Structures are given as C-alpha cells and as structure tokens.
TrEMBL record:
This is LIV-I protein F. GO terms for molecular function: ATP binding; ATP hydrolysis activity; branched-chain amino acid transmembrane transporter activity. The keyword Coiled coil does not apply. Keywords: Amino-acid transport, ATP-binding, Nucleotide-binding, Transport. The lineage of its organism: Bacteria, Pseudomonadati, Pseudomonadota, Alphaproteobacteria, Rhodobacterales. PROSITE patterns: ABC_TRANSPORTER_1, ABC_TRANSPORTER_2. Belongs to the ABC transporter superfamily.
Length: 219
C-alpha cells in the first residue's frame, strides 16, 4: 500500500532523512521507533506533502505521492494525526472533526458515526470548544479527525506523547481496534512502550536512517 524508496530530505540544507525506504502492507499496523530528533515527524510530513523530498519516491496504492499536491492526499483517504494535534481552538470538537469533510467535500456522515461508535467519549463532549479540553482529550479529537479522513491509511505521529497513562491506554485501545478492522496504520513512538502489542512490523529510525526490526508483536 505505502512504499518509500530511497528518500532523501533536507531542511535548510541540513540532511534529515537519508536513503529512507520502507513498505507498509494493506491492513497492517507498522511501528516507527526513534528518539526525539531522529526524523519521525519529518518522515510523516514528507508522506503528507508538507515537506518536499529531494530524492526518491513515495507511492500509495500505485499513486506517486512525491509529485502530488499536499491537499490531494486527503482525497486519497490518508489521515494524519500530527504530534502537536493542530486543533482549531475556538472550534467545537465536532467542528474540528468535520474539517476533513469540508476540505474534501465529503457528505458521507457514516464515517463520523463510525468514529463516534468507536470512541463514544468523543460524542459526549462534541459540543465543547477544543480549547477547553485536556491535552489527552485533544489527542483523542485529533485522532478522530484523522480517522474520518483516513479511510485507507492513518499516520499517527507520537500519539502518546504528553498524555496521562489512562488516556494513553485509551488511545492504545482505539489503535488496537483499528488494527482489528484491518485499517493500515503507521504509528511513531520514541520508546515502543505502548504500541508493541498491536504492530505487525517495526522500523527503527536513527539520525534519519531506517532499519527493519524483528517482529516483536506480543501474543
């Protein structure tokens, strides 16, 4: 489904990603493990088109993403949860989730209902302003927004960072549910604490270079 081939990317002439290659098969959950500054966020942003690659190719369902416009990727069913959430503070929870519908002119509300069914707590504070939520609750909302857009692929950048243990566990339960539904997911973490039980394959990233780790999924 998603293939990165020999990607190089620099920011202000500083090399960040170097000869990065990875493959994520349809319906699998893949981990991307690395310390802060290793290149995880840069890789995610490159897939989403927020950063241009200098060399190599990114393909999604045989579409060349590295030549596609950034806004075209949402229409391909790619959802993205950024590390810093990027919610609109004065929007309600539901308005933040609906942003992807408005951007893609999608009128199928079944996807929204699916998200509320999967995360009923989101529905309970759907009318609250995003700015009134805790950091962990905001992560849930950002995940819901990504899930609405990501009918084919979800990119989750450090979803557990800065979240209280109880909400981190809840996030992990939701990601486990996505795995059971055969949605394709790439999730990054700094220390592999939370996602170990649900990932099918793990890549390690260090100083902008990637290596494939052994499959360590727990039974």
């Amino acid at each position: 489904m998603l293939t990165l081939s020999n990607i190089d990317l620099s920011i202000q002439r500083v090399p960040i990603l170097r000869d990065v290659s990875l493959d994520i098969e349809t319906g699998t959950t893949c981990g991307l493990i690395g310390r802060n500054g290793a290149g995880k966020t840069t890789l995610m942003r490159a897939i989403m088109g927020a950063l241009p690659v200098e060399k190599g190719a990114i393909q999604f369902n045989h579409v060349d993403l590295h030549t596609a416009k950034g806004h075209e990727r949402a229409a391909l069913g790619i959802g993205y949860l950024p590390e810093d959430r990027r919610l609109v503070p004065h929007f309600t929870v539901e308005e933040n989730i609906m942003v992807s519908f408005w951007a893609t002119k999608n009128t199928d509300m079944a996807r929204l209902k699916w998200v509320y069914d999967l995360m009923p707590e989101i529905g309970r504070f759907a009318d609250r302003k995003a700015m009134t939520l805790s950091g962990g609750q905001q992560k849930l909302v950002a995940l819901a927004r990504a899930m609405v857009a990501g009918s084919n692929l979800l990119l989750l950048d450090e979803p557990f960072e800065g979240v209280a243990p109880a909400l981190a566990q809840r996030l992990m339960e939701v990601i486990g549910d996505l795995h059971n539904e055969k949605l394709t997911v790439l999730v990054s973490e700094s220390d592999y604490t939370h996602s170990q039980k649900v990932v099918d394959k793990v890549y390690a990233i260090e100083r902008g270079q990637i290596s494939l780790m052994n499959n360590t999924k727990a039974a």
